[in-house]
Design brief:
The protein is mainly α. The chain has a domain of 131 residues. The longest helix is centred in the first third of the chain and has 47 residues.
């Protein structure tokens, strides 16, 4: 009698436990897949915009690293280093050499972050390939630099630190190849040299 009760309980557990377990396992696998896809999206955005630091996509992906890669100590550590460099206040009197040094340091830290993310996602990408890779048309950089220069000029004008340069556009009258016309305003002299006296 006891054996039959135990068998019945086992059959019930197997009957109801199997589908439930299958659903739980499926949901668990789906959760892992969604988590990886979100991480891949952040990684793709950062790789795609690694030469466009001012891109909204780059900034947006950078702000999601802390959430999507939570628990990945190496990635979070590299992210904090890179963010710390980006948040440095650049003095107004910084030299071009110091600015180049700062940009190179930011390049190095971004490369370190992307490499840590690639390792987390099981990609085999060398740091040198990340650092040297990526493409940005020169025209994009030229447009960005011109827009920045125009913004700074406009700010200086509005603050009164700069005046609008005004140049004279008067052009001299081109010389004529013909001689000037005779002057008809003078009175002609009478012939014979008459003085106008009576005899």
């Amino acid at each position: 009698m006891i054996d039959q009760i135990t068998l019945g309980i086992a059959i019930i557990i197997a009957t109801f436990g199997g589908p439930i377990a299958a659903v739980l396992v499926t949901r668990w696998i789906d959760g892992i897949g969604l988590k990886r896809e979100r991480r891949m999206q952040v990684f793709r955005d950062l790789m795609r915009t690694r030469r466009l630091r001012l891109s909204p996509d780059h900034v947006g992906a950078l702000n999601l690293v802390e959430i999507e890669f939570h628990g990945e100590a190496e990635t979070i550590g590299a992210w904090k280093e890179y963010l710390g460099s980006l948040n440095k206040i650049v003095p107004e009197n910084i030299t071009n050499e110091e600015l180049d040094t700062l940009f190179r340091e930011q390049d190095r830290l971004l490369t370190k972050l992307l490499h840590a993310m690639s390792c987390s996602l099981k990609f085999k990408i060398e740091q040198l390939d990340i650092f040297d890779g990526g493409y940005t048309p020169k025209g994009w950089n030229d447009i960005e630099n011109q827009q920045q220069a125009m913004r700074l000029l406009l700010i200086d004008l509005l603050k009164g630190n700069r005046a609008i340069p005004i140049a004279s556009m008067m052009h001299p009258t081109p010389s004529s190849p013909y001689p000037p016309p005779p002057d008809t305003s003078a009175r002609p002299h009478s012939p014979g040299g008459s003085s106008g006296r009576s005899a």
